[in-house]
Write a sequence for this structure.
C-alpha cells in the first residue's frame, strides 16, 4: 500500500522529497542509448537508494512494435544487465519485467473504459510512430493507458522521464483523477496523482541527425557501445559547414549538446570558449566527446562484461523484483476490483 514515508521530510537540494514513490519504465525495444540514460536511467539509479523505487522493463509495451520472440527476450535481459552495470542495487529497490505483473493489463482494461478514443488519437508519440509507417494497432493507440496502469498500480507519485513522455504522464494523472472521482469517496481515493520529474538540461537528447535520439530512428548511440563502433557513430554526428577557423555557436551544435551532458563545469567552459574563439573544429569537439564518453562509462562497461557471464544472477534479480512488485500490485488491485464491483469468486465469499 502507499508508502509509509512521511511527506514532511525536506528533500536534499535538487532531490525529490524522500516520501515520493518513484516509478518508471523502459522499453526493451533495442539497445539503450544516451537519450534513455540522461532522460531516465541516470535519474533512476540516482534515486533508487534514497527513495522507494519500482523500475519495470515494459515488454508488454514493446509488443506494439516488435514481433521477434528471441529479440524481445534478449533485449529484456539486456536492459536488466544495463541497470545492474550502471549501479542498480537490487537490495535497495525493485527491478522487474512488466510481464511478471499480469495484473497491470487488467488495470489497463479498466482504464480503457475511462478513456476516449479521440483522446488517444491526439497522442504525439502515437502520431509520430504512425507517421514513421508503424501499423496503427490498438496496442500502439492504448500505449499510454497501459503506461498509466504501470505507474498507478504501485502507487507511484513521481515519474522520472524524458520530456517526450510529458503528455503520457499527463494522461496518467487524468486517469488517476477520473478513477478516483468515478469509483471512490472524495476522502478515500485509491490512486495518488503522480507528477513527472523531467530534468530541463536533458529534456530531449539529440541523436546523430539532430532529431530526438531514439531506438527506432536509427540515430542512437548505445550506452555500451565502445571502440570502433562508438568512434564511427560519434564522428558521424551531423554538424553544419562552418569552417574550422570560424567562431561557432555551441548552443546550436548537437555535438556540444552531448558534450554538455558528460562534461564537468570546467570542461564545459573550456570547450564553450574554444567554440566561440574559432580555430576549433567539429572534429576536435567529437574527439573530446569520445574521450568523455569512454571516461564516463569505463567502470560500467567492465561491470557489464562481468555480469554478462552470469545470466542466472540477472534472472534472479528480475525474479525477486517481480515477486515484490506483484505483491504490491495485487494489494492495489484488490481495492480496485472492490471499488469497481468486479466479483472474483475465488476471492469473494458467495
Ligand atoms: N532522446 C531522448 N531524450 C531524453 N529522454 C529520452 N528517453 C528516450 N529517448 C530520449 C527517455 O527514456 C525513457 C525510456 O524510453 P523508452 O525506451 O521506454 O521509450 P522511448 O521514449 O520511446 O525511447 P525510444 O528510444 O524512442 O524507443 P523506441 O524507438 O522503441 O520508441 C523515457 O523516460 C524517455 O522519456
Amino acid at each position: 500500500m502507499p508508502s509509509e514515508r512521511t511527506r514532511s521530510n525536506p528533500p536534499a537540494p535538487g532531490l525529490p522529497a524522500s516520501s515520493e514513490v518513484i516509478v518508471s519504465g523502459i522499453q526493451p525495444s533495442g539497445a539503450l542509448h544516451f537519450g534513455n540514460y540522461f532522460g531516465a536511467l541516470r535519474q533512476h539509479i540516482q534515486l533508487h537508494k534514497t527513495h522507494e523505487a519500482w523500475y519495470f522493463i515494459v515488454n508488454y509495451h514493446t509488443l506494439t512494435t516488435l514481433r521477434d520472440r528471441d529479440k524481445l527476450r534478449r533485449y529484456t535481459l539486456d536492459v536488466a544487465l544495463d541497470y545492474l552495470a550502471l549501479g542498480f542495487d537490487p537490495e535497495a529497490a525493485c527491478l522487474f519485467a512488466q510481464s511478471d505483473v499480469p495484473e497491470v493489463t487488467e488495470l489497463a482494461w479498466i482504464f480503457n473504459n475511462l478513456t476516449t478514443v479521440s483522446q488517444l488519437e491526439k497522442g504525439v508519440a502515437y502520431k509520430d510512430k504512425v507517421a514513421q509507417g508503424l501499423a496503427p494497432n490498438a496496442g500502439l493507440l492504448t500505449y499510454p493507458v497501459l503506461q498509466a496502469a504501470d505507474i498507478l498500480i504501485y502507487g507511484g507519485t513521481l515519474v522520472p522521464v524524458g520530456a517526450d513522455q510529458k503528455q503520457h504522464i499527463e494522461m496518467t494523472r487524468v486517469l488517476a483523477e477520473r478513477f478516483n472521482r468515478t469509483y471512490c469517496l472524495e476522502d478515500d481515493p485509491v490512486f495518488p496523482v503522480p507528477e513527472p520529474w523531467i530534468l530541463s538540461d536533458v529534456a530531449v537528447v539529440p541523436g546523430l541527425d539532430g532529431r530526438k535520439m531514439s531506438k527506432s530512428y536509427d540515430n542512437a548511440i548505445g550506452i555500451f557501445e565502445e571502440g570502433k563502433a562508438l568512434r564511427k557513430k560519434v564522428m558521424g554526428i551531423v554538424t553544419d559547414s562552418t569552417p574550422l577557423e570560424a567562431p561557432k555557436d555551441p548552443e546550436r551544435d548537437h555535438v556540444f549538446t552531448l558534450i554538455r551532458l558528460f562534461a564537468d563545469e570546467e570542461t564545459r567552459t573550456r570547450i564553450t570558449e574554444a567554440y566561440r574563439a574559432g580555430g576549433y573544429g567539429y572534429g576536435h569537439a567529437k574527439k573530446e566527446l569520445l574521450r568523455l564518453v569512454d571516461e564516463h562509462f569505463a567502470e560500467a562497461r567492465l561491470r557489464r562484461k562481468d555480469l554478462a557471464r552470469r545470466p542466472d544472477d540477472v534472472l534472479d534479480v528480475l525474479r525477486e523484483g517481480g515477486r515484490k512488485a506483484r505483491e504490491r500490485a495485487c494489494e492495489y488491485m484488490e481495492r480496485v476490483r472492490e471499488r469497481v464491483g468486479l466479483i472474483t469468486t475465488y476471492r469473494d465469499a458467495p
Summary: Residues 26-27, 29, 35-36, 39-40, 161-162, 164-165, 204-205, 212-216 surround adenosine-5'-tetraphosphate (CB under 6 Å). The longest helix spans residues 311-340. Residues 1-10 have pLDDT under 50 and may be disordered.
